[in-house]
Specification:
The protein contains 10 helices and 17 strands. With about 375 residues, it is α+β, with helices and mostly antiparallel strands.
Amino acid sequence: MASSSLHSCFLPATFHLSSCSSTFLPPLPSQKLPVSLKIHLPTASVKVDLSSCRSDVAVAISHALSNCLSETHLNRTLSGLGPKIRGKVRDTYDAGEYLVLVTTDRLSAFDRVLASVPFKGQVLNQTSLWWFNNTKHITANAFISAPDPNVTIANKCRVFPVEFVVRGYMTGSTATSLWTVYNKGVRNYCGNILPDGLVKSQRLGANILTPTTKASDHDVPISPEEIVSKGLMSKADFDEVHSKALALFAFGQHVASEHGLLLVDTKYEFGKAMDGSILLVDEVHTPDSSRYWIADSYEECLNKGAEPENIDKEFLRLWYKDNCNPYEDKVLPQAPIHLVSELAWRYILLYETITGQSIDIPTLLEPIDVRVTRNVAEALSLL
């Protein structure tokens, strides 16, 4: 891997992550952005420093590598909970009128689990809670309480079998990512007509929605017309969710830009409550469901045809693509510890940058699943 100027608190001196280098894509000096797509990006008032890891956080991450929350079994110890529904990252339990959602430390990409990352579940859960509380002016959500850093108790609703992916930039490395399909010649993606001549990492002329169906083992792109014709959603419900998703993303981009970040793309899930109202569910603008780039260096990277500095899991995705075939290989290489630790720090950095709050590092030397079980039991007894 080519070296670069980006230094990080967990990477050895001989290892550098891409920072405006052409490690992952060839430079495109001859391709100019179409005039219609040259959108002015706000100047970031905040500089985000990937190498600014606090010593206490670095130590905590190192100690937590052996105490990640990879699996939960609440139904074995708490009466009244239904069987576990194991998602890629979240374990869900039926608690009668409510759902108990435990966000684990599992890292998922390429439709499989790659590793367990210290504090990842806590960061995802608490990041989502911050966004849930700050997007109520756009849409209602299913959140009730958070009795534990890794746990959300939510209202039940009928979740639509569609993930609403909103994109603002031409990028991505997975099979359904916009750059992947565009680079293969696709110009009509999920009902969006894309012009020729776009380059990787370029900002789109407008944010677009590229829905996917929630298949059991992989995501399948689908157009709005197909969603309605196949009976996955009514047209009225789709139109409402479409509008909410674009509004959430625009608001997320605004908040990110105020904190020196670019919200590149994300995915939302929605459901319908018993009273017929539409609720935002699952997670919001987390580094698992979203791509974030560093705003200050974006233009330089784009002009060089290089990967933008990111603050999400994209760098680990790219490491796997460099070292194996993550879609077809039955056994994948183990993620290097220094990259897992780096990812843990980046997730914490994103949470602290967006919310303005310091992460609360647990001080009790007890297994996370023991703490989670105790806190969920107490919370359910009070409902």
